[in-house]
Amino acid sequence: MSDPSWKTIKEFVHNRAAGQCEYCQTCKINIGQAMHVEHIYPAGGDHADNLCLACPNCNLSKAAAVTAVDPDTSEEAPLFNPRTQQWNEHFEWDDNYAVIRGITPVGRATVSRLKMNRPRIVLARKRWTQAGLHPVIKVSD
């Protein structure tokens, strides 16, 4: 495909992510809102390596940022890049899958910048977990 349409690109991004936010792992079937196709690097273009699926909270909180302050060290760190990094190398679940904990400077800066543990989101994750709807484990190809 030499020049895919935006519709084709969006479908590819949604399918690649299995309908799950690539930052906070929220599944689109749980939030009842449209997921966003997010530009990892705002000026990086619309190619697949620069796009990821993000829930509205993560996308709007990230905005155009590519770095943030690690709250543990007060130093600037790059934000998590779902195209080049593995989620479980930078984050882990705490409190029975309700709270996301950053375990590296990248993870901590991303959790902080994207406001991944807002009280309303933590409460929703607790309820989704109780209902057996969270976490959604993606099946690898």
* Percent range of helical residues: 25-40%
Q: Give the C-alpha Rg.
A: 15 Å
* Range of strand content: 15-25%
Low-confidence stretches: none
Question: What is the number of helical segments per DSSP (H or I, 4+ residues)?
Answer: 5
Strand order within the widest beta sheet: 1-2
Based on secondary structure, the structural category is alpha+beta
Order of SSEs, N→C? HHEEHEEEEHH
Shape: globular
Largest sheet: 2 strands, antiparallel
Q: What is the residue-mean pLDDT, rounded to a whole number?
A: 93
Query: How many strands in all?
Result: 6
Number of domains: 1
End-to-end distance, in Å?
A: 21 Å
Description of the molecule:
It is a single chain. The chain has 141 residues and is of the alpha+beta class. It is built from 5 helices and 6 strands; from the N terminus they run H-H-E-E-H-E-E-E-E-H-H. The longest helix has 12 residues, at 119-130. The protein is globular and about 45 Å long.
